[in-house]
Write a structure and sequence with these properties.
With about 230 residues, the protein is α/β, with parallel strands linked by helices. It contains nine helices and eight strands. About 45% of the residues are buried.
């Protein structure tokens, strides 16, 4: 039976916040707004560029006018894609964990609300793209997390049934996605959750990626007994 592990990207595999902040603060500066801090930005990410900008504008002054949202999304995207991975780092232990999972014969994919082309660009810049057989970012399909159809598209591209997969993420949205898809979720505590990950209702929490292969084995063993 073919099985897969599907991952969120930002806050799960990589710390992309410094480069996201650079692009975000460039848009804010263009509109005579103060820059946001890392602590503020950490609470803003999730859902894609438009929610990020809405939260940033609300914190730094008047809210973003809906009719101008798309132009600001485009500006943010231009800034971000011009410099997407200068300060972005891979969380410690990610690469060995991915290699260990692949050695077990598991297929690996990414389900992220990061804009699709940006996700592909960052994966390539960090030399992570070779580890994944499928990556679906926001706007790659007409729906996005927590809609289970986004997750199902990744599973289908990997050639597995969703029930033969599990999800790895860091946020409330990831937990909701997993529950909608009917799959277990493993959470990491070093991402961008607005609440402590222990309060999110995940199936497991790992403190370091070195724990991931054994936890994946344990959860798949449980799935097989159901």
């Amino acid at each position: 039976m073919t099985q897969a592990v599907i991952f969120d990207l930002d806050g799960t595999l990589i710390d992309s916040l410094p480069d996201v902040m650079n692009a975000l603060n460039s848009v804010l500066a263009d509109n005579n707004r103060r820059p946001v801090t890392r602590d503020e930005a950490k609470l803003m990410v999730g859902g894609g560029a438009e929610p990020l900008l809405n939260r940033a504008f609300a914190v730094t002054g008047d809210v973003l006018a809906p009719e101008r949202a798309q132009s600001y999304v485009e500006a943010f995207t231009i800034y971000y894609r011009a410099d997407p991975a200068t300060k972005t780092t891979i969380f410690e232990g990610v690469v060995p964990a991915l290699e260990a999972l692949s050695a077990r014969g598991l297929r690996l994919g990414i389900c992220t609300n990061k804009p699709h082309q940006s996700a592909l660009q960052v994966l390539e810049a960090l030399s992570l793209d070779g580890h994944f057989s499928a990556c679906f970012g926001k706007a790659s399909v007409p729906f996005h997390k927590p809609d289970r159809r986004h997750y199902d598209e990744v599973a289908q591209a990997l050639g597995v049934l969703p029930e033969h997969s599990l999800y790895v993420g860091d946020s409330e949205t990831d937990v909701e996605t997993a529950r909608n898809a009917g799959v277990p979720i493993i959470l990491v505590p070093f991402g961008y959750s607005r609440a402590p990950v222990g309060d999110l209702g995940g199936d497991r929490v790992i403190e370091h990626f070195s724990e991931l292969p054994d936890v994946v084995d344990e959860l798949f063993a449980q799935i097989m007994t159901l």
